Amino acid sequence: MSLVSPSQGATVDNGRTDIYDGIEWNFDWSDCPGATRYHLYVTGPGAAYPIIDQDMIPGSSYHHVSRGYIMDKNRLGWTWKVRANVDGRWSEWSKIRTFDAEPVNSDPQPPSNPQVCTVALQSPKAGALLDNGRTDGEDSIEWDFDWSDCRGATQYHLYVIGPGAKNPVIDVDTGATSAYHTVGLGEYIVNNNRFGWTWKVRACVNGQWGEWSEVWVFDVEPVDADPPS
Description:
There is one protein chain. By secondary structure, the chain is mainly β. Helices cover 0% and strands 42% of the residues. The protein has two domains: 3-101, Immunoglobulin-like; 121-220, Immunoglobulin-like (Sandwich), CATH 2.60.40. β7 (78-86) and β8 form a beta hairpin.
């Protein structure tokens, strides 16, 4: 198996100390015939533990994203290697390649008067029909929410409320993740509350909350629509 990218001696991305910009690294290697998974191991100079130690990668590439940064004293001499699992057995490790990280704060700094980002909702679409549970408790409610990324956002706030309700069913800070998955084990929504649910999201950039997104409306399928699980 041959390592492809980053090449030997390459300089890869670094973040910023103000966390406005993070780290994005892409690793690529040759396919190994019959491989069902790959193990990528990446470690910093003199480190006791790897920063990446992933042994369930299904394909011959890996995308790593981090909100942090690498201090300049630790920029030089990062190493990476890969091995493949074929017929339940691990191959030998590939050759080890070395790369460096660019100086911290190399990427553009945030504007002095930042324009706070307004989130664009993606899913569920306006008018979508979402999952419901069962009155016998033999099925759960599973909802997925997804929205656009805001550059530099460190937090997102998701707010979901039912028709005529005073309190939201979801009022959560999702961290820096622009998606949210919720499961209501054994729960259900009665049929007279199925229609007119609303959701919205806002982003926090440089410690400042932006405006709420537009509000989208969705409905819930009839109770007992799904078979017992």
